[in-house]
From TrEMBL:
<dbReference type="GO" id="GO:0006623">
    <property type="term" value="P:protein targeting to vacuole"/>
</dbReference>
<dbReference type="Pfam" id="PF23556">
    <property type="entry name" value="TPR_Vps41"/>
</dbReference>
<dbReference type="GO" id="GO:0016236">
    <property type="term" value="P:macroautophagy"/>
</dbReference>
<keyword id="KW-0072">Autophagy</keyword>
<dbReference type="GO" id="GO:0015630">
    <property type="term" value="C:microtubule cytoskeleton"/>
</dbReference>
<keyword id="KW-0653">Protein transport</keyword>
<keyword id="KW-0813">Transport</keyword>
<feature type="region of interest" description="Disordered">
    <location>
        <begin position="1"/>
        <end position="33"/>
    </location>
</feature>
<dbReference type="GO" id="GO:0030123">
    <property type="term" value="C:AP-3 adaptor complex"/>
</dbReference>
<dbReference type="GO" id="GO:0008333">
    <property type="term" value="P:endosome to lysosome transport"/>
</dbReference>
<feature type="domain" description="RING-type">
    <location>
        <begin position="791"/>
        <end position="838"/>
    </location>
</feature>
<dbReference type="GO" id="GO:0008270">
    <property type="term" value="F:zinc ion binding"/>
</dbReference>
<dbReference type="GO" id="GO:0030136">
    <property type="term" value="C:clathrin-coated vesicle"/>
</dbReference>
<keyword id="KW-0862">Zinc</keyword>
<dbReference type="GO" id="GO:1902501">
    <property type="term" value="C:lysosomal HOPS complex"/>
</dbReference>
<dbReference type="GO" id="GO:0042802">
    <property type="term" value="F:identical protein binding"/>
</dbReference>
<dbReference type="InterPro" id="IPR045111">
    <property type="entry name" value="Vps41/Vps8"/>
</dbReference>
Amino acid sequence: MAEAEEQETGSLEESTDESEEEESEEEPKLKYERLSNGVTEILQKDAASCMTVHDKFLALGTHYGKVYLLDIQGNITQKFDVSPVKINQISLDESGEHMGVCSEDGKVQVFGLYSGEEFHETFDCPIKIIAVHPYFLRSSCKQFVTGGKKLLLFERSWMSRWKSSVLHEGEGHIRSVKWRGHLIAWANNMGVKIFDITSRQRITNVPRDDISLRPDMYPCSLCWKDSVTLIIGWGASVKICSVKERHASEMRDLPSRYVEIVSQFETEFYISGLAPLCDQLVVLSYVKEVSEKTEREYCARPRLDIIQPLSETCEEISSDALTVRGFQENECRDYHLEYSEGDSLFYIVSPRDVVVAKERDQDDHIDWLLEKKKYEEALMAAEISQKNIKRHKILDIGLAYINHLVEKGEYDIAARKCQKILGKNAALWEYEVYKFKEIGQLKAISPYLPRGDPVLKPLIYEMILHEFLESDYEGFATLVREWPGDLYNNSVIVQAVRDHLKKDSQNRTLLQTLAELYTYDKNYGNALEIYLTLRHKDVFQLIHKHNLFSSIKDKIVLLMDFDSEKAVDMLLDNEDKISIKKVVEELEDRPELQHVYLHKLFKRDHHKGQRYHEKQISLYAEYDRPNLLPFLRDSTHCPLEKALEICQQRNFVEETVYLLSRMGNSRSALKMIMKELHDVDKAIEFAKEQDDGELWEDLILYSIDKPPFITGLLNNIGTHVDPILLIHRIKEGMEIPNLRDSLVKILQDYNLQILLREGCKKILVADSLSLLKKMHRTQMKGVLVDEENICESCLSPILPSDAAKPFSVLVFHCRHMFHKECLPMPSLSSPAQSCSICCAKHRGPVSAILEMKK
């Protein structure tokens, strides 16, 4: 169980029991503070006997018959000498303006703290309890109850006299009473009763469970959670009772209300006090334990538990042992638990001490987390509740967290947390960097240093770069790449790198980093030289970014050797900066690279490099024959004679055939295909492309004594040449492979042609008929004629202004309109009338589609 150490303006007395001093990993729910100031002074000479709590002040009764009014801090504001003997109970109304006091010598006083009204009475027996009406301030509620051997209700009559009536007697002393709204609950030796002051009826009796306990030594504890829920604690038993309205049909002679016990359970210790906390309970328990050495019972420290009631049991939420003064001598009846509903304050009252328990706030939660070294959780809690915390600052918690991580040796996590915790505070950043330097962990913090807002002193960045330069070239290079060049003094770092290169001049990492530093310093020439030496991929990016084309005119071969594809793309993209002529000249001694450049130039634009097309013929023939034929086909500027000469020298048959055909020497080309390539299919394809009858004749003559060629011709020429011409020339007795199949194919091709022609004819006829019908439907439609239309001959409105006059109008299919009298009379040679406008435009005669007469 969790054990809390209360604090007296800081801390309570520490327990000597070692087991009780052990810290719990579970955070306590409440915090404790001893009520001091005037209370300390009172309890040095007297002992507390009872106490009641109001939102504005406290009232403390003592064994010497004094009543003290205290503020929340325990300072005395008023003192009343009520009796020479023990004050048994003090009661306040809700306004805090009226107080009732009863004492062991039978005295009862009810008086106004700020008014003159007063009630005094002395009874012949000790008065144990008193409770004033919660709304005593109202004239209609001037009531209070007292309890000794019987429970008396005092009411002020209309003549300002007090009259008393007995509510209950005969079951022993009344030892506890609580008044809420119109309900009064009290406890005597037999149990707990509830009385409805409105209906003047007692509505329940809840008997006590453990009758073996003396009621004067283990008194009943009562508290109202709300106006209809009563909580009863007696001995080790807790009952939660709910006051409910009885249905009208069930009343008969019964009270209008009844009580239902909604929860009942046993606790581990004897109950000295109860108080509600939301839907939970705060229970003050009296504890007796057995000594392991003497085997005798002794009074242990009282406990304050928070429990969650269930229907037949309860769940413990927290449990704290309280070190109150003189706990070794106290009995169960000596402890009282009072509470302030508005502030959730709980007062543990004992004869020699008053301890205040309150719910822990966010500051207390953070305190506990820091004490347990749970810094990350503390930081998170502070960030979530930064508007509510008063004693802590997020920055202080964060710095403590960083220090804790450093102490644990978790340097990388500590450095990473600096980003979030230090934020934009440059001074704190610099302070932390020096701390990391002292412990030799500059590398750990380097990835997280701010690089923009804020910017630290250049010395900080230089110090870290020097640290990496001494021990980690790769890490140094990474920082130089990632950090902007204006964070540090570039010349200082350049000199440091050059000093290291004196010892290791071929170190690629240092050379590359030096090139980057030169770039930051705008010394692009040196940077480019290093990149080219290293054959580094960023050389092209550097040239583009800083427009270094003037610096690479004499380095084109180096660039091509490094990456010809990227180099050619860059050169072609920037022809305005490095001309084609310059590039070709620079590559004159490297024809293979010259070919790569000119080939890509030709791919982009067939005409830009036309002056080099003659040169390209030799280059393609030497380095890239597969692309020679496409080049010859696409180029319109290469000299064909030169190309033919080169191809014939190198015996490039396909290219020679193409050139011969392009130069008009198709028969030589065909002859070369047949003699050099012996490829009848290619020869047939060539003859089809040329579509020349003489070529077909040459092909047939060459093939007539070669059966395989004849087969190929029979299979392919059916759609270009009449197969009969070939068949008639075949010598009798010649064996031709697959002749039957070839003849079948010729017939099939012929049938296919016939079918295609018939199909086309059917489609043509169907389309013609469809269009004729469409034209007929169109010509059958009416044409709108209104006053806006004019005669195309006389240009006057087609319709007369006087609708009564007779008229005659002709409308042609071309939509031209004429008065009938404006058209010439039809003659014998052309009896049909036609539109004079369309005839003038050579469109042919158009018959009238509509004649309108009136």
